[in-house]
Design goal:
The chain is α/β, with parallel strands linked by helices. The chain has helices at 26-33, 61-68, 83-86, 89-99, 109-118, 180-183, 213-223; strands at residues 6-11, 43-48, 51-55, 75-77, 103-107, 126-130, 137-139, 142-150, 156-164, 167-172, 191-195, 227-231, 249-251, 257-259.
Length: 261
C-alpha cells in the first residue's frame, strides 16, 4: 500500500493497554506470548502526499516511534487530556529539545489548557496551537473539523472529521451515548474509527465512558458509514474470536493500515 492517504494504527488499546499488568486472563496471557492481542494505548498516524500527523501520543509513544523506525516528526492532533492520550508528550518535547526543532500540537483550547496545567514546560519545546471549532484546520491536505463528544463518567473528549479529495472519515476514540447533535458529523462517512472498549460491558451505565460493540453497532446502523474500524479495546476483546460483526466492521490491531481513498 502506498503511503499516500494512509492511516496506520500504532495503538488500539484502552487506558490500561493489553496485557494488563495484574491480569492472567486468556487474552492477556495470549498477548504476552504470540502477541496478537497486545495493545498499546490508542494512537494513529495519518500520512498523505502533503505531510503527516499523529493523533494522540500516550505513554507507549516511545515504543510506537521505534516500531515506525521514526526519530522525529512535526505535528500531533490530540483528542483530550487523559494520560493514555498525552502521556508521551514529555518524551516528544525532550526529542524536540535535543533536535532543536519545535513540534506543533493541535487541540481545542480547553484541551491545551489542561495539558499546559499538567506539563507547563512543554510549550518551551512544542508550539500549542488551538483548533478553531467553527472553521476547523488544515493538516497534510486534510480539512479537519473538531467537535466535543460525551465521554461518560470521564467527562469529555473531542472527535475529528477529516476530508481530503472527497474521502471523509472520523476518528472518535473515546465516546459514549452521543446525543443527536453529537451524532450529526457521523453521517456521510467513508470510514468511522470508533472506540469500543468491550464487546458487551455489564458495568452500571453511569460508571462507563466508552461504547461497547453492541451499542456501537446500533449507532452504525443509524449513521451508516461505508466502513468502520473499532479501536480503544480492553482485554475483554479477543482478536481470535468471531464476534459475528458486519463485514463492513473490522477490529484494529497494532500496525493495521487502511487506505484513505
Amino acid at each position: 500500500m502506498t503511503k499516500y492517504n494512509k492511516l496506520t494504527f500504532l495503538g488500539t488499546g484502552d487506558a490500561m493497554g493489553v496485557p494488563r499488568v495484574y491480569c492472567d486472563c486468556k487474552v492477556c496471557e495470549e498477548a504476552r506470548t504470540t502477541g496478537m492481542n497486545r495493545r498499546y494505548r490508542s494512537s494513529v498516524i495519518v500520512e498523505s502526499d502533503q505531510g503527516e500527523f499523529f493523533i494522540d501520543g500516550g505513554p507507549d509513544f516511545r515504543h510506537q516511534m521505534e516500531m515506525l523506525k521514526k526519530h522525529r516528526f512535526q505535528t500531533m492532533l490530540v483528542t483530550h487530556p487523559h494520560f493514555d492520550h498525552i502521556g508521551g508528550l514529555p518524551e516528544w518535547a525532550d526529542a524536540c529539545r535535543w533536535l532543536g526543532e519545535k513540534g506543533e500540537l493541535y487541540a481545542p483550547q480547553e484541551v491545551l489548557n489542561a495539558i499546559q496545567t499538567q506539563f507547563p514546560w512543554l510549550q518551551n519545546h512544542i508550539k500549542m496551537k488551538p483548533v478553531d471549532l467553527e472553521n476547523g484546520l488544515a493538516l497534510a491536505g486534510y480539512h479537519i473539523r473538531a467537535w466535543k463528544v460525551n465521554h461518560g463518567k470521564n467527562g469529555y473528549s473531542y472527535a475529528y472529521r477529516l476530508e481530503k479529495d472527497g474521502y471523509i472519515w472520523v476518528y472518535c476514540s473515546d465516546s459514549i451515548d452521543l446525543s443527536e447533535e453529537e451524532q450529526k458529523p457521523l453521517y456521510g462517512l467513508d470510514l468511522l474509527v470508533l472506540g469500543t472498549s468491550f464487546y458487551h460491558e455489564e458495568a452500571a451505565f453511569e460508571t462507563r465512558s466508552v461504547y461497547d460493540m453492541v451499542e456501537a453497532q446500533e449507532l452504525i446502523a443509524k449513521v451508516q458509514p461505508k466502513q468502520t474500524i473499532f479501536t480503544h479495546m480492553s482485554h475483554d476483546v479477543d482478536l481470535r474470536k468471531d464476534y459475528t460483526l458486519s463485514p463492513d466492521i473490522k477490529l484494529a490491531h497494532t500496525g493495521l493500515t487502511h487506505s484513505l481513498k
